[in-house]
Fold each of these.
Amino acid sequence: MVKVQKNKCSGNLCSQQTELFIRHLQVEKNYADNTISAYQRDLAKLLTFCQGSHVAEWRDIDAKILNLFVMRLRHANTSNRSIRRHLSSIRGFFAFLLRKGVLSENCAKDIASPKLEQTLPKTIDYDELNKMMQLKSSRFDELRNVAIIELIYSCALRVSELVNVDISDIDLKEGFVKVMGKGSKARFVPVGQSAVAAIQRYLLKRPASKSGALFINLKQNRMGVRSVQNIVKQRALEVGITFNVHPHMLRHAAATHFLQSSHDLRSVQEFLGHKSIKSTQVYTHLDFLELSKVYDDCHPRAKK
């Protein structure tokens, strides 16, 4: 939790206002830790830049200063996506200062965000994914690693969601798992039979632990995000996959395969826990690419 300084700095350019804003995001908005960390980094850069430009108060910041800040980011080879995130953080912060009476207007609204080139999420072929889910032994760590991959793919989980799943969150009889998504929003996701079987095998070898976590490490503690990332990467290398595989790639594969089978974008949105349908629509492009590939291979009138 962010510690708020006791001294008041009103509209002066100091870190207390940003700390109050971060507390607001934590307590009132209930934002995820990664999102809050991004806000902190972005606003810290703005604060350093403005202090270096001899800006005395937040109300002294105008569109010209913000444009100079954006130019500084560009000169540092910051990507357009990161610049857009910086501007989004600043707009949110200035809107907060506006409500608090520190600012009389939000000049960040006048700054245009750079356009993004549409990049499709990287996915993995099902045959390659299937190799990663084949058991090689009955060791605890082997059973656990396969169960992790099965559950991520079966439920299209974010890695942060996976590591927070407790044993009490999963109902293997009914085939459902309770997942805590972004913004601490819970959703119930169906678990496929293959994933259920993998988890059952793993639980038979799982040592007794005080931790209620579904997946634990060799020290019987809840697994962390980095550990799961390393497991997925190492597993892919072991089965001969030469490109870098990460957990989010399994989530993308699950969403793509679900859409290809159901053609129901709204169901995929609920499946993934997306707040906006816009976040889900990228998978329609992946589905179209797959359709184009099949057309080129099979249609008699396709260009060869």
Amino acid sequence: MSGDAWPPSLHLVGSKALGGAERWVQRFARALAGHGAAAVVGVRAGSALDGVDLGLPVRRLPFRTVWDPFSRRAVSRLIAELKPAVVQTYMGRATRSTRLPPRCRRAGGPVHLARLGGYYRLGPYRHADAWLGNTRALCDWMIQNGLPAERVHQIYNFAEPARPRPVPEIDALRARLDVPPSALVLAALGRLVPVKGHAVLLEALSRLPRELDGRPWRLLLVGDGPLRAGLEQQAAQLGLADRVVWAGWQPDPGPFLQMADLVVFPSHEAETLGNVILEAWAWRRPLVCTAFRGAREIARHGDDAWCVPCDDPPALAAALRRVIGDEALRAAMVERGAVRVAADFGEDRILAQYRALYYHLVRA
């Protein structure tokens, strides 16, 4: 295992539906394939990831319940068959189902690396050999809660490069979504769950006039989730029903980012990283976001993003007015965001860090 080779790895994700973590697994798996990594992905049979082209060999596993003994045995058999150097698990279900006996480690067997993308309860993760967080703050929190610092590692997510579609395709998408050609498009991406702050965004938008910078505006909500019905009701009560476009969950958000004039990301404090920040930068779209913990770590207010306090509709409304009304500010933020994502969050840079970490774990 020298030169550009990768230690062989197995990646396990046991969730049923698609969300931010699952989108990351898709991006990461395809990136591993593109970098020639010897990797296999284990997914839950019948899940939303089952049947998706990940670019890597895929194995189907039960992952029926949190403490499913059938899944534990299936995972153990797969590890014995593949003999990976690193087993990387995502989320609690896959992590709980992965139990490597001490004798396996002493014999030079695989290292269990548990990746956390949020501030989860650590009990189901403590049996791993090492832990990976996607922000410094998350890693600090893991250490403060008892995980040994020397085995906690931090690597940011990467942003996929923008791959623009032909203009007629984007025009057709606008027409399908009933977004007028003249409309200013504000795009908000993310699952419709409490942490994403969509209710705050709707309240902020209710404070804006029907036109911004001389154009009618539309909010393009790209995502789905349990709060949709309540948010639709809120939008109607606020008089926004005709200005909110419910695009639903999209496996590829690229065309929607391409359609956007501005990206708004209104998450609450508990948001860990916020991949939407990286996606906005990669697509060269001006970004207005709240100053949640992840944004405070990676975004720079007034430089590559315009940040406002969390849970403050008036401040968010004022920020949207300010950024939309200042073309020079938008252009400057776009340029600086593009520099940031290329320098600090590019695929090659992040994959090199993963490869170095795998070698470190194997040698340790």
